[in-house]
Amino acid sequence: MKWRAVVLTTGLVLGLAAAPAQAGQPDEGEAVIVDSTRHGGRTLALTFDDGPNPVDTPRLLDVLRKHHVKAVFCLWGDFVDEHPKLVRAIVAGGHKLCNHTMHHDNMGTWTPEQIKADLEETNAAIHRAVPGVPIKYFRAPYGSWGQTPQVAAELGMTSIGWRLVISDWEPPGTDELVRRVMEGVTEGAVVLMHDGPNDRGQTVDAVDQVIPRLRADGWRFDLPARR
Ligand SMILES: [Zn+2]
Question: How far is 216 from 210, CA to CA, in rounded Å?
């Protein structure tokens, strides 16, 4: 128990969390960054950041529904406030929610108090859109984790990283995105893609193509593990 207070101030939390063998059993406040699926093996988890976006999120939801895939949406609080209906559509589609902070700030140097205030504000925005919906995951903008995993854990959220990123924020063409997924996927990978904040049409098209191809290769779609 005591070391947790220490790691809060030293920022060594990730180093400690990387040695789960020492932990023995899961600890309530343990700040792990998960980058693997619940079931492992030939599975992957699709995660979409920086939405909701009024153009691409509805299209993406249609694609995921068509293929019967559930994903995780890491929501940007400002856009949650702008598009609460889209948050309701995401939840109605059976997908899981992830807190991606209120304004997409780099929190690498923020104090736990500052982080907590932002994450709670973001969860409140999501709950204004969908009262009571579970928010099980957190992802730090820019992968700049700082002390966020510890705070997220205290708020009951698992921090999710990724094992595959396809750099779709600089759209290289749908075919190239498809190639990056098919060649980059590894067993149990959490995959990072984007449905916002601006045009992500290529990502949606790529998702539509890779799902049946991955399934044909024996892959199954899973969710990220929870610590
Ligand atoms: Zn982001």
Answer: 10
Q: Is the dihedral of CA 108, 115, 163, 36 positive or negative?
A: positive
How far is the centre of ligand 1, averaged over its atoms, from the C-alpha of 105 (Å)? Answer: 9
Map out the domains of the chain with their CATH numbers. 32-221 (3.20.20.370)
Q: Which of 35, 194, 208, 222 is catalytic?
A: 194
Q: From ligand 1's centre to the CA of 35, what distance in Å? A: 16
Question: How far is ligand 1, taken at its centre, from the CA of residue 109, in Å?
Answer: 17
Instruction: Give strand pairing partners of 96.
Output: 72
> In tens digits, what is the pLDDT along the chain, a chain of 227 residues?
333 333 333 333 343 333 333 333 444 446 899 999 999 999 999 999 999 999 999 999 999 999 999 999 999 999 999 999 999 999 999 999 999 999 999 999 999 999 999 999 999 999 999 999 999 999 999 999 999 999 999 999 999 999 999 999 999 999 999 999 999 999 999 999 999 999 999 999 999 999 999 999 999 999 999 97
